[in-house]
Design a protein that fits this description.
This protein is mainly alpha-helical. The chain is built from 4 helices and 2 strands, in the order αααβαβ.
């Protein structure tokens, strides 16, 4: 999954995944989603997406991968406004030379 994906785009895959887990466990539709994922020892897709974002941030900022070096920057580097989110990470859009 891409980092730029919004949770809105994950809605259908999340629902499909929940349905598949209910079918595999032969559970009722009223079965709580967290119960399904704990029985399979899995993360829900939205949490898995967050985990992948955290891993990307770790690789970019801590391991200093040259490929992703300029992908994440601080909001303070984008604009000079003194907002509460100035220390948050700003994900730049994909850039291509092709």
């Amino acid at each position: 999954m891409y980092v730029n994906t919004c949770v809105i785009h994950l809605d259908k895959p999340i629902k499909r995944n929940n349905k598949i887990l209910r079918i595999l466990r032969k559970c009722l539709i009223r079965t709580h989603v967290l119960e399904l994922y704990t029985k399979f020892n899995m993360l829900p897709l939205d949490k898995l997406h967050n985990q992948q974002i955290f891993l990307l941030v770790f690789k970019c900022k801590c391991l200093h991968y040259a490929v992703h070096a300029n992908y994440l920057v601080l909001n303070a580097e984008i604009h000079a406004y003194n907002t509460s989110a100035r220390t948050d990470l700003h994900v730049l859009g994909p850039r291509s030379i092709y």
